[in-house]
Amino acid sequence: MLTAYLLAFEGGVHGDWERGARPLAHALAAEFRPDAVWAVFGNASTLVVAQKLARAAGAPWFMDIKDNWESYTPAAVRGLMARRFKDAAGYTSNAHLHADIAARFLPHRQTILYSGVADAMAAPPDANARSDRFLLTLVGSTYRDEMLAHFLSGLQRWLTTLTPSDRQKVSLRYVGMARSAVDRVLSRVNVSCAIETSENIPHAELAKLCQSAAANCYLWTPYTFHHKLLELLSTRRPIISYPGEHDESCRLSREVNGELIVCSDEERLIAAFDAVWKRWAAGEICGNACDISGLNWDAGTEMLEKLLQSALPRSGRSRQSEAVEGLMDRPLSER
Length: 335
Description:
Elements: H1 2-9, H2 15-32, E1 37-40, H3 44-57, E2 61-65, H4 69-72, H5 78-84, E3 90-93, H6 96-102, E4 110-112, E5 134-139, H7 145-159, H8 164-167, E6 170-175, H9 179-186, E7 194-198, H10 203-211, E8 215-219, H11 228-233, E9 239-242, H12 247-255, E10 260-262, H13 266-281, H14 297-309, H15 319-329
Parallel strand pairs: 1-2, 2-3, 3-4, 5-6, 5-8, 6-7, 8-9, 9-10
């Protein structure tokens, strides 16, 4: 019940954020005069700050539910949070999966706003995979050691079907925050190909790596939408998901003409590795027709702007524009 108390009386778990922002709310409301406020939900304190700023400014505010609401809010306080933030004009969510879960508790209007993909990740249509090495990447969180061990077991079982000379052409590269977990599991299992692991790397470097791969892989867990799928789709390479994926992700992949291979067990994983290997050996791993222009940062910005503008008065006159014009009319010494 500590969370409930902090939410009711201390501005959320990170009440120091709310206390630090409190003196600024009226100044922002008076000088910046926001037309709308949009708050990213990583914890309830960000929502409290946005709510109080919006009230001070007399402006509507929106929540951004980027993650599974049930994973980040204890069951005992979900009703309290719904009542606490009932005055929000709506919320955005980065997946139908997360929006549908949030809708069990939040009766607000919802807008699906997929997290954008950096332009650096997008491969040109004529980009080809490396021809000298069959490179597989494993990207992102690994969740449970057991799941990772099964993935590596499937890889090893497939490797044993290759000749020794072909096996030398295969390499696996892991990139992500779970490097220590990957290294720990690798120390306990046998994988007979070259392996390299690293922490997160810059977008441009990640893009170059994934665009040079024969296939990009990730581990799936059912409680969240995996945004990494959109980033990997933009590299125009086959994507292997293990041990499953949501229908929403499969539909998205089809809509943008991407190639997502969902493997529910080791046998399907082995078959996927083998199918991609044969295509690579035949020189057939080239840029596919995937087009994620509707899911990049520019597209997301445009959608968000339309949502926020929908909350403006019908005159469409921006109070921020009026405030800026008023500020510019003042002498420099008063600005």
